[in-house]
Amino acid sequence: MAYFKPVTHVLFDMDGLLLNTEDLYTIGFENIASRYGKKFTFELKCKIMGQHSREFAGNIIKELDLPLTVDEFLVETRKIFAELFPQCKIMPGVEKLIKHLSKHKIPMGLATSSSKETYDMKITRHQEFFKLLPYKTYGSDPDVHRGKPNPDIFLVAAAKFPQKPAPETCLVFEDSLNGVKAAVAAGMQVVMVPDPRFDRSLAPQATLILDSMEDFRPEIFGLPRFY
Ligand SMILES: [Mg+2]
């Protein structure tokens, strides 16, 4: 059995991990690609997951050879997402885990590549729940210079905890490979809860890979167990 080191602080990615917004991104990108007779594939999706909006826009345009500028692409996606994001749902097992850790006063933070603006859209129906994560870092944070798979966002997020925990005492939850790489580069352990279609052999660096957050047992990382 793999050896898990005890942790004191927890950081969560948001898209596809806490919220089902990755499915909504897929719907939006498929819609735009289809207008130009192109197909937005799962392989391309895996490549861009976790990136900042300007980064993923540029990569999709390049890979699919779309006749759009980054700004034009973002204007089109914004129209679609303004309708889709406020309807997003919390992923299975997430509420139970975060409420449990919150009750036990485990310091928790959010580390999302989303801008504050899109974050606000996504949490429209989940305002109270997101208050359980007091420390928040967005992709639009001026201290986050480089997107995932670079470690910036997790280092900035960990530095927001008043206790200034060492990276090895922080546990990250991620759904994307770029996010897993970012967490490992930051020196943190990372639990991956990927899309079921994801090829797990591509993420040997993940500390643990789960089918669902419902399968997570906090005690293996020294956190309070469910009872
Ligand atoms: Mg994600």
Automatic annotation (TrEMBL):
Domain of life: Eukaryota
One GO MF term: pseudouridine 5'-phosphatase activity
NCBIfam families xref list: HAD-SF-IA-v3
Protein's name according to its UniProt entry: Pseudouridine-5'-phosphatase
